């Protein structure tokens, strides 16, 4: 894989179905330096179907095109003026801006710089109402009468696992944070939604009255969670019984529903959680037994099953036991209330819907100023849709698609598909195949993909009966894509005018997410997670208990995207990155070169002080959310592509561009190294040496890249080029102890992983063979093959409280496993006092105690670098004890100061052995096979560890003589 490809794939994440700017990006003849500054006019359609066009004006300072909105113009002018104007700014030039007349987004006043606010709905009633300027406003408002309050959305029972695994995070507000124009009651009110925590959603606890008694309890309720029960046929009237499940990891009040059978009790599912919280103490404390029967059978196999249950026996209370009677009556009445509530609000599974609404709520509360009126209108229309429409959209959005057969869509939580589709279509959230008179070629290809090979073959046969030329002129391949190509050829050639109707006859009605909705919801999802690797499935992983995120506070003092123009430039850069990734998959070298040209042109116009509004420590880790940073990754991948094509001169120009434009970047070490290597490839040895020498003076060149440049200087800087020996010569040339081990090889092929026969006769790799050697004649060492894994795990556990300390702006979402600045210099700078105090404890022998406390407090919680499954606590304790405090503190300090540069390349084996006084010693070993050699990063680690006082070796495994 090309260098930088994997990183680009992670950046892009899930590929977007529709790239609105693809055509303009790749065909525009305008100067490319304007690409990152111009906003595409093909924005989200408003309710009346018109395109929401923006007015563009020329900046009187720099001359660039900017959106003609007051706030955007003012922000842009501030940036230009702080960098120094190119021409005198006069009153005349200000009037020439031709500001647009759209209503300005208001900014709510906040009393203090950092104010604690709730994640829930805003209570500020002074904000402007959202102005819906299209004819569909009345139809939208007609659907709003089905709303109920979503106040306290984060405490929803269906999402309780999310906040039980991590304490409720306190969100701190931004001073002057723009208030979005979608009113808060619009966001917080969802029609008859089972997601609400209002009084309608959750019955209040009923206080006991004097009329209560301890008579039989009769309840009508449901069986939920059937997918986790045993499969089997149900019959109306079948007897059931309830059984407590206190070991349930998701709910300690869980109550199972079992069939009442003398031979075998089958598990059907559970009763609703709202009811179980009252019945469980009646079973546990008052020893009531509940039985009942099934009242009806649902059609869907996983739908809820209506049941009726009753208690058997009467609980007796003495005269002196009035408190127990009150508790019993309170539980009884609350159980009756919960059961009555469940009859009118059946527990329909709606996690997808709830998660999507939660995402939209938080994004609009924090980043509402980044959405246009058209986008807010679309979101408002979606929020006012019925539950069925919202749930169908949430399901389709999470699937790959883009087209889906209506006949194959089946979800238990959706009652009326026709009304759901109708609502989504009116809100312009979906596109239907039946309503499209003319399809684009790509659209038709995607629709044909929903057909299987047999259906495509039948379609070809039908075409051949009426149009013989299709069989004569088309490729006769038998793969699915071959059949699709033949149908497309017939469509493009106009050989069959009614082809679209024939395809519709095969596919039936098809549906897909519309381009406008996909764009808006992708933007919301990106703003929520701030990366391309996470999506709505993260909620589900938490619900199922698969992932447990750590507890931390989100403190906001600044916006990641100050205005919409920054966000659009960033999104445009991601589109270029996606096109680059797709082009590499398709081996389209011309398009790859075009993407590199676009990126280079944008970086050429980049000014590093663009983020001057941020503090220095913030700019380092927030820079990855800028367009220039994304373009730099595309360029770096382009460098690797050009080097692979042996186009070294073009690669050299790109590397010089990166080094010239990004003065403070941790990637400068690699850029300098590649520039020096490529210059040597083209025969410029003097310049190659000069680049290596200048690179060593760069404070951003570190770890393996620094060692590599030092070795290049020593190799290239021999007389007559250089007569003086560099001061680092003796340090780099230090000898590392080598141990040679022989083994019987299973294979000797070049390019294939070495496999040997171990001492026990089983097959093993070189690392396992080395472990066997050190466990025996090598010195009775214990150890693990871990590389960087065990070190990052130890670092994460020891530094847990430091990593998740309250630092502004480093935690922006609830789904982070590390602060945003972990891989930057600001991590150590901002937390210097905390880190040094902890390192002092480690150095003085408290590492094992800290490790045990951290493990017991956080076991199973996701944290960057920590692997709970690979290493046991006993292994970690042994390693920490034998390494010793001073050496361990040195490694932790190194990782804290530069996690990015030092989190890889550590030695393969960590070995330890104890002495009689519970003290021990450790050894670090890098294992190399017959044809392997040390990388520069591995050499840098070994030299660093030697400086720290570690015992370090290189174990070279060779073939035993036959």
Automatic annotation (TrEMBL):
The cross-references to Pfam families, in alphabetical order and at most eight, read: FAN1_HTH (PF21315), FAN1_TPR (PF21170), HIRAN (PF08797), VRR_NUC (PF08774)
Q: Which GO terms describe its molecular function?
A: 5'-3' exonuclease activity; 5'-flap endonuclease activity; flap-structured DNA binding; hydrolase activity, acting on acid anhydrides, in phosphorus-containing anhydrides; phosphodiesterase I activity; zinc ion binding
Q: EC annotation? A: 3.1.4.1
The answer to whether the entry has keyword Repeat is no
| Record keywords, A-Z | DNA damage, DNA repair, Hydrolase, Magnesium, Manganese, Metal-binding, Nuclease, Nucleus, Zinc, Zinc-finger
Q: Which InterPro entries match?
A: Fan1-like, FAN1-like_euk, FAN1-like_TPR, FAN1-like_WH, HIRAN, Rad18_UBZ4, tRNA_endonuc-like_dom_sf, VRR_NUC
Q: Which GO terms describe its biological process?
A: interstrand cross-link repair
Cofactor names from the entry are: Mg(2+); Mn(2+)
Q: Which compartment or compartments is the protein found in?
A: Nucleus
Question: Which ranges does the record mark as transmembrane?
Answer: none
| The keyword 4Fe-4S appears for this protein | no
- Catalyzed chemical reaction(s): Hydrolytically removes 5'-nucleotides successively from the 3'-hydroxy termini of 3'-hydroxy-terminated oligonucleotides
At the top level, the lineage of the source is: Eukaryota
User: Can you name a GO cellular component term?
Assistant: nucleus
Q: Which PANTHER family match?
A: FANCONI-ASSOCIATED NUCLEASE 1
Q: Which family does it belong to?
A: Belongs to the FAN1 family.
Instruction: Briefly state the protein's biological role.
Output: Nuclease required for the repair of DNA interstrand cross-links (ICL). Acts as a 5'-3' exonuclease that anchors at a cut end of DNA and cleaves DNA successively at every third nucleotide, allowing to excise an ICL from one strand through flanking incisions.
Q: What is this protein called?
A: Fanconi-associated nuclease
Q: Corresponding gene?
A: LOC107775125
